[in-house]
Every structure is written in C-alpha cells, then in structure tokens.
UniProtKB/TrEMBL annotation:
Protein name (Swiss-Prot/TrEMBL): Class I SAM-dependent methyltransferase family protein
Cited InterPro entries: MeTrfase_TRM5/TYW2, SAM-dependent_MTases_sf, TRM5-TYW2-like_MTfase, TRM5/TYW2-like_N, Trm5a/b_N
Domain of life (superkingdom): Archaea
Domain annotation SAM-dependent methyltransferase TRM5/TYW2-type: ranges: 82-328
Gene3D superfamilies xrefs: 3.30.70.2580, Met-10+ protein-like domains (3.30.300.110), Vaccinia Virus protein VP39 (3.40.50.150)
Amino acid sequence: MSVRCVRVDREDGEAVRQRLAAAGALSAEHEIDVEGDTIYLPLDPAVDPASLDPDLEVVERSVERRETQTFPDDLLGFEPSYERLGEIVIVDEDDDERAREIADAIVESDLPAETVVNRASPIEGELRIREWDVLAGEDTETVHREYGSAFELDISAVYFSPRLATERHRVVDAVEPGEHFFDMFAGVGPFVVPAAKRGAECVGVDLNPVAVEYLRRNAERNGVADRVTAHCADVREVSGYGDWADRIVMNLPHSAGGFLETAVDLAGEGCVLHYYDIQHESDPFGPGEAAIRAAAAPDYEVTVEGRQEVRSYAPHELNVCLDVRLSR
C-alpha cells in the first residue's frame, strides 16, 4: 500500500523518528521500511505534509501494514480521513451517514479512541469555538501530547489545532533561556508552555476564560507554573508589559493586523515577532509585511527573518507566518 513517508538517511533515522513520534505524526498503521542506507518513516494519514519541517523529504512509498491491529479502513473498505487529539478522533464529513459509518469503524478498530466527533460548524466568534457532533463516547475533554508537553483541553470550549504542532515546535525551538516571551492569543498554552520549558519567562493572554484556566493547569501539569503568567482579557487592555517582550506570537490569522499597535508597544529594544496571516497565494506575505512596517514606524527598523507557508487554508489561500525582527 502506498503511503506518505519521510525519507531519511539511516544515521539520522532514530532522531527523526523520535521527532515525528513526539509530534504525533508517525503512522500507527504501517511498518517502518528500510532499504540500504535509507529509512522510510510512514506518516499518519491525518498529518498534512506541508505542516512538517520543510527540510524533511516526504515521498510516496509502498510499505507493509501492521498485521497485529485492526484499523478503520480494514472494516470500511476505504481509507477515511480523520485526525487524533489525545483520546478524541475527529472526522470531517458533510454526509452524516458516512460520518457515523466511519465513527462505528473507529470504535470497532484498535485505534485508541474514547470519543469520536464530526465537525458541525466552522470556527466562529471571537473565542474561535466550533460545534461538534459527538458520534461515539461523550467526553470532549482530553489530554493531547506533542513534543514532550501535555495539554489538557476541552474541544467544545476552546480552540486547538493539532495540525500546527510542527509549526509551534519551529517557533519554540528558537527560544532562549531567560527570554521574555509573550503570546497575545495563547489559548491553552501550546506556545507558552514549551517556551517556558526552554527557560523563558512567559505571558499568555486570551479572551476565553476556559482556555486561560486550562493554560494555568497545563503550566502546572508541565512543571512551569513559576515561569508562566496568564491573563484573561483583550490583550489591548493588559497593562504592565510595555517594552517588555523579546519574542511575541500573534497566532490570530485574519485578525492579527488589528493588534499590531499593541505588539509594537509590547516589544522591547529588540523583539522577534511571529505574525500569522491568511492571504491569497498570489501574494501571501506582502500584506502582512506592509502592515507590520506601518505599525512599527518610526520607532523600529523591521527585518524579515523568515517567511513560512504553514499550510493550505482554502483554495488559493495560504496560512503563513512572518518571522520579523523589530530593532529600536
């Protein structure tokens, strides 16, 4: 059976395997394949290859199925699309009958699933919540693990995307001990908590009181509560952090531009800004860069250090990140 695999030299195989496993990106359904000095690491079908480390080589390859387990496609006769978030399996089907058929197969299979849900609405409102149809089980709270951190959350009450695990790791991997790290839209802490684990002093702000409570609990769970301060508020109304931040995360695509003045106020003498945006593929970075330069002038010089295509968002639209250094 042909599946997407990461192709890697044998000498780097174990290190890459561990990284993919920590990100929840390895397939539980297929065997790792070895040919000469090359290893092929099969990817979870729910993983978007575009969200992985761009330096990794992703190829199609025929690999063996693991015979000791039963998977949903063994029961269905076709390969369903789903993603896992802790013990919750998420499907995305417009046809209710097909969604329930997939849910039944997931429950009967050997996948570790306590609850199966189907997306029932788009992400809506300033709290970025969506509705779900619960097809199996009943508990929408779970603990999700990625890159060595654990995040408790309730998908019915907070926003969380497991597809962004690799992108979060990319940003956090640049954090230095002692750094002042500010997440303007922190959610349950998927940027804040691992940044604190790297030794940063972290502040996370979110409008959603449920998300902020989970952020505090996740800081405790991961042993970094002493380095994490959480605020439930509109970040534009939080005081006491002027000229404070060495690094700012603005992961609020579509709306982040409205908060750039606040980001500039938060920035210290030198600050790296991770600005997330959704734009047409014809010019995915230009509008964001122009907005940042306008907000930063005349106090800061702006240097674009990275332009990342995070994932495809919709036909002809890309979710992107601008890594920008502000220097006073």
